[in-house]
Structure formats: structure tokens, C-alpha cells
Target: PF03932 family protein CutC
Amino acid sequence: MSKILEICAGSLASCVAAQEGGAQRVELCDNLGEGGTTPSYGTLAMARGKLDIKLHAIIRPRGGDFLYSTLEFDAMAHDVEVCRSLGLDGVVLGLLTADGDIDAARTRELAALAGPMAVTFHRAFDLARDPEQALEDVIAAGCKRLLSSGQAPSAPQGVALLSSLREQAGARLTVMPGAGVRAGNIAELAAASGCAEFHASARGEAESAMRYRRCGVGMGAPGVDEYARQETSAALVRELRDALDRL
Model:
């Protein structure tokens, strides 16, 4: 069975690097330091024009938990419609109730708005209280893919649950391991989980081109280096792709 590699990209440059490295799909996010939020319209439109591979976008109005207000949900619905109008291939979303269950009604509503686009339920699943029931709710809501670390800090640590979820889902939904997926562990993860799709960021340090740098003034959280960032590396993507191709 051919293995699919999805790269979580936090910029247009990272999208291009993912494609150059051999990924078959990109999940485009903003604010990866917060787990990913919805990119701007301009970023989505530019990415669609630059990529020949599949392009999915995260639908998440903010960082933090996955219990959304009516205003936030309405924004998510508009973002789904924007992605559909731009010709994206899929959206990635996740909503929970206050009691830690899948918000099935709202997930179903967004999945219906997505129309022909593929719908992935993201790692909000990993915060659900009952993974077996949560999986059934995700499937019933119309999602065709689940991104999960197996409710563990990383997919290799959660591989037992990932394997169980894959067996439970059968042909109804694709389980895609993500979090901590590297070239050095992806083969073992594939063998132990039985999964055929994998999600990774493949990021490396990207040096700022700024020559003048003002010290002691930050725009974000205290201690964050404004002149350091991470981008997807085409070389790291290629290492992941090569590891999968050897299976």
C-alpha cells in the first residue's frame, strides 16, 4: 500500500518546501506555536496558486481549547466557505463540548458546508475523554480522516491506541498519526500502527536576514527571539519520504 506524507506548513515558503521534498499533501496553518490557526485569505489563495499537490487548511479561530463560542463558530463556518471558494482540497477542524466529547452537531454542520472538500478531524480528538466513542462521533459527523497522536504527547508514544483506532474505523475513516513523527521513527510507527498516512512538520531553523537587530524589544511572549523562526525543510521532507518509500 502506498504511504501518504502530509506536511504541516506554517508559511508559503514551507508549503513550497513540502512540495519540493516530495510530500503529497500540505496542511496549511498560521501560528504553529499555538498548535495552528486559520491562515489569512491571501496566504490561502497564494498557496493554492503555488501548489500542485493537495492543499488542506486548518479551521481554528484561536489557540487554546476547542470549546467555541457562537461568534467563533460562525467565523469557522465562513472560513470553510472561503476555502471551498478558493478550490482547496480539504479542511482540518476539531470541536469539543465542555464535557470533553466531540461536538458532533457542529462538526456535522461544518462538514456539510465543506461540500466536496475532504474533512479531517484534528488533534482536538486527543483531548476527548472517551477515544472509542469519540471516533464513532467523528465518523458520524462526516469526517473522512482523523489526525491523532493516540492521546499521547507523540504518535510513537500513542501507537497502541492509534492501531486500535485504525482497526475500529476500518474503511470508514483514515487514521493519520501525527506529532513527533520523524524520519528516524516513521518506519517503526508505520509497522506498529498499520497506518498508511502520516503527518509531520519537518521543520528546521531559519535564520533572519535582518542586519540591524534591536535587542531587548520583543513583539511576542517574553524570551522569544524575534529573529529566529522555523520553516519546513525540503531536505527533511525528503528524508521522511525516502523512509516511507523504503517500506
About this structure: The radius of gyration is 18 Å. The beta strands are 4-9, 25-28, 54-58, 90-93, 118-121, 145-148, 174-177, 197-200, 203-207, 228-232. The helical segments are 12-21, 41-50, 70-85, 104-114, 131-140, 159-169, 186-193, 234-245. The mean pLDDT is 96.
